[in-house]
Amino acid sequence: MNQFYQKILKVFLVMLVLIATNCNVLTAQIIRCGVDDLTPAQVQTIQDQLTQYLSLGKSALASQLTIPVAVHVIRYNNGTGDVSDQAIANQITVLNTGYTSTNFQFVLYSTDRVNNTAWTTHYAGDANETSMKQSLGVDPSHVLNLYLCAAPTSSVGALLGYATFPWMYSESSYMHGVVIESASVPGGSETNYNEGKTATHEVGHYLGLFHTFQNHCNTPGDAVDDTPYEYSPAEGCPSGRNTCPQEGDDPIHNFMDYSYDACMYEMTSGQSARMNLVLPVYKPSLYGV
């Protein structure tokens, strides 16, 4: 083989290495949220149920509700992966700040800690998630259970968090709750995602909100009128991003997008109204009805 072809081969091999390396980086990338998006038909089913509720002369939540939060810190067997009481208090503060424009506020109800490597590294939807929630869940009809896990995972990779929608299980099911990566709490070690906004995002799902990019550019989107359509999740803080032909730039500052924590600070009046309606339909016991 002459020198010319040897050089071409070397360049080709280098390109393969770079491509493989890039793919590994993408594969290893942490996933903002493990909640699956619903199909337009599934969203419409939920909308029909909400409409039926109103047709019976019933009303949405009209006053402020303070939701008690039971925090479960799941550490490794050797005790590493702990979260301090101060960090937990800061997380509750971040939740309250994020939901200031809504009828919802949060108060710490209890904190417990357990050493269990299988639980803190569980795969969303597996038997370890089930056993963790069954063992630790506190009165899910009346209390929001927040699980802080060191390394929750899914089929797409490491997760920052995931949550249950309020219609997924009966009110009293121990499966209800929010799971977040421990390092995502305020002051945690997860770069760009350590201001506590992961919990804000996942609690939104718990109270009935979809991602802002739900259904891409297709009706009904996220079923909220004042969040512009968005084709795909944002990353970082891409100012002026516009991925759909409908009016309005992508809602990159909304808590239900995938932007960096520093970029997320909005909850719209439409989202607030949706949560006000979802709660009495699917989780009335949460506010004593």
Structural account:
This protein has seven helices and seven strands. It is of the alpha/beta class. The protein has one domain: Collagenase (Catalytic Domain), CATH 3.40.390.10. The termini are far apart.
Comma- or semicolon-separated keywords:
two-stranded antiparallel sheet; globular; alpha/beta; 289 residues; 33% helix; single chain; 7 strands; Collagenase (Catalytic Domain); disordered N terminus
Radius of gyration: 21 Å
Q: What name is given to the CATH topology? A: Collagenase (Catalytic Domain)
Count of DSSP-assigned helices: 7
Number of domains: 1
So what's the oligomer here?
A: single chain
CATH class: Alpha Beta
- At the fourth CATH level, what is the homologous superfamily? Collagenase (Catalytic Domain)
Shape, principal axes of CA atoms: globular
Global mean pLDDT: 90
Based on secondary structure, the structural category is alpha/beta
Helix fraction by DSSP (H/I, runs of at least 4): 25-40%
Q: Mind describing the biggest β-sheet?
A: 5 strands, mixed
CATH architecture: 3-Layer(aba) Sandwich
What series of H and E elements makes up the topology? HHEHEHHEEEEEHH
Count of DSSP E strands? 7
Low-confidence segments: 1-28
Separation of termini? 81 Å
Order of strands across the main sheet: 2-1-3-7-6
Report strand %.
5-15%
